Amino acid sequence: MGFDRSGLPSTVTVRPYLFDHMRILITGGAGFVGSQLAVRFREQAGAEVVAFDNLRRRGAELNLPLFRSLGIGFVHGDIRQLADLDDLSGAFDLVIDASAEPSVLAGFDGSPQYVLQTNLVGTLNCLEFARRRSGGFVFLSTSRVYSIAPLRSIGLIEAPTRFELDEIQSVSGVGPTGIDEAFPTHLPRSLYGATKLASELIVQEYAAMYGLPAVINRCGVIAGAGQFGKVDQGIFTLWVAHHHFGRPLTYTGFGGSGKQVRDLLHPADLYALLTRQIDALGQLSGGVFNVGGGRGCSTSLVELTALCREATGREVPVGSQADSASVDVPLYLSNTDAVHAATGWRPSRTAGDIVGEIADWLRTEETSLKPLFT
Prior knowledge:
Radius of gyration: 20 Å
Helix content: 25-40%
Number of strands: 17
Distance between the termini: 43 Å
Number of helices: 13
Largest sheet: 7 strands, parallel
Structural class: alpha/beta
Order of helices and strands: EHEHEHEHEHEEEEHEEHEEHHEEHEEHHH
Strand content: 15-25%
């Protein structure tokens, strides 16, 4: 059934938190989300931050000079190896687990070992480290924990530029504003989603059994400048980059119309939420929240193409392929009512804001970014 809020206060009073007295470990800290959070906790909150990353994803190494300039510590290690975490010095006030193999296609073309070891064993190692040497734990999960078959059976209306939610729905956990925490998770959802869902359960057990204050955020698509997008992860940044560099695109799946919809979340909005959650971690411990842009910060591929043309001033050919991959879904919108009720948080940025920021980044850093996107 998802997260039951009956044991939590209906609202949380958020007070200013003295982050400058905190020592924060961010696993996956050189990746897109981890690095964005590391910079904000250091620059805006004054926290001592250590970023821990195996640098497997291309482009992550470009964040290291920025870390050095800001005084963010960096440790090259792998969460699959508990010994690498144990080599870290000292204790931490908080562990933010932003590490993951984030591709929903992981394991489809061969061995599932990396996604299983990283997203499941790696989380267990992070939790065990946090149990012994941290005062709290924030787990960044994913909307991909929700089962694919129910997501594909959501009632939709085909509007001119996107699919919209029908007023009548036969699946629990879906309403006018999107998908909430009661949406089904009991059917297949990809190895990526399965490992994150299994990790959520273990996080809750550590919170209950060991008293480790912990919160779980099921994030929708996170996008913004600094993301080195690929087809299977970071597609919105890739879409902007293809416009900037003049490369063709394809509307794939669901008839090839480009009307499939996702909501977007900017890292700055995620950071704003985490500051609220951390300040009330004891009250929120064990909670699971949908975190995303919702209907107000969402786009279809057709609408995204229009935003990209406006932001870059360029038009590229867009093809069409009707067939859908087995893991594709036509629409996902985060219902964030639960996290709003608990913390007062709402995202503030629009899809247009995010696309514009990415386009500016590509223009400014074109020389260094072109090899990564072309």
